[in-house]
Amino acid sequence: MTTQYFSALSQKEAGTRIGGSVIRTGGLVAFPTETVYGLGANGLDGEAVSRIFEAKGRPNDNPLILHIAKKSDVKELWHSVPDTARVLMDTFWPGPLTLIYRKSSIVPDEVTAGLDTVAVRMPEHKTALALIRAAGVPIAAPSANLSGKPSPTSAEHVKEDMDGRIDVIIDGGPCQFGVESTVLSLVGTPTILRPGGITREMLEAVIGPVELASSILSPLKEGETAASPGMKYRHYAPDAEVIVATGSPKEAAGKIAELYDSKEAEGLRCTVFATEQTKHFYRGKRCVIIGERSDPATMCANLFAKLREQKDTDVIFCEALPERDMGLAYMNRLLRSAGFKTI
Ligand code: TXA
Ligand code: MG
Q1: Pocket of ligand 1 contains residue 230 by CB under 6 Å
Q2: Domain 4-216 carries which CATH code?
Q3: Which atom of ligand 1 is nearest to the CA of 98?
Q4: Which residues place a Cβ less than 5 A from the ion ligand 2?
């Protein structure tokens, strides 16, 4: 298959018009959102949705998010709209918040992987909204990477993984948030299944106490069922091994410096993901600056791209951040990309 490529800047009209008709006729279109690039198909057509799983090599028990362009469209996808959802939609949509509630009968099993709930989100990115409108149906879309790889935050990343496997790529430049949406289940006590750009603190200011799924910062225990099936799988793995150093910046840097030297002595090529505040700890070592510790949102925005870019490295060392505000989303992605390996 030849993948057609459109720039959202110079070919805006054509990209969303052709992309919309490809979706309507059962094809696959990668498109930019404010979080990461999505790989979209007609969310009401089970056969089209199953092509997403094929193109990504995604385990088919991992459900997808339906993307809509109008808040009121949730009404046909959920069996009812709870009050908490209304408040959250009014406050945070369009934006990086996915809400899970009981599904209606029009949602195909391929989207929900057989669950009786469905995840819905209204993205903020203008190209994503234009594409959904042009398609005229909700768009089912996971991140547009091969399963297991870091999510794509530019069209180049999408091309790297998906060229020749999908019909269309719409290039909208780099993504603003760089990590996927916050996933919040509204079945029972509101529970964050995946942290993202809408933080726990922001949600609690609007609806009161919100729980965190235990698998956000630790691996599932033997025999434990995942609140969100996606938590079972290895995620965001770059080509290199990732190791996370915990403790204060100084403690983390001390641990990294020591292990860096011994790995290099074994002949392994090492890289440190440092920050503006900590780079001075690593003189003479290969460093990539990932942002400022005081600005975890920027560190999130850079993380996946920097992980992908390290082609000639065997080991990547990263410093842990405090697990609050956007630091929680950062640590969730980082620990998963490290397969929870910490020092
Ligand atoms: O920002 C995003 O959310 C991006 C863009 C493209 O919108 N999409 C995305 O999709 O990250 P994906 O498929 O890579 O991640 C969706 C996550 C998975 O962990 C999945 O298991 C979970 O949401 N999920 C989806 N439906 C669910 C459901 N009904 N119950 C529990 N978890 C669900
Ligand atoms: Mg994904």
Answers
A1: yes
A2: 3.90.870.10
A3: 3
A4: 142-143
Residue keyed to tokens 């819905």? 120
Span 231-261, pLDDT tens digits: 666 677 778 999 999 999 999 999 999 999 9
Pick the CATH number of 241-337 from 3.10.580.10, 3.40.640.10, 3.40.50.2300, 3.40.50.11030: 3.40.50.11030
Please check whether residue 153 is in contact with residue 40, taking contact to mean a CB–CB distance below 8 angstroms. no
Closest CA to 307 of 178, 170, 143: 178
Residue 322, SS3 per DSSP? coil
Per-domain boundaries in the chain: 4-216, 241-337
Alpha-helix runs per DSSP H in 269-316: 296-309
Q: Residue 85 carries which side chain, given as an amino acid letter?
A: A
pLDDT of 227 higher than 90: no
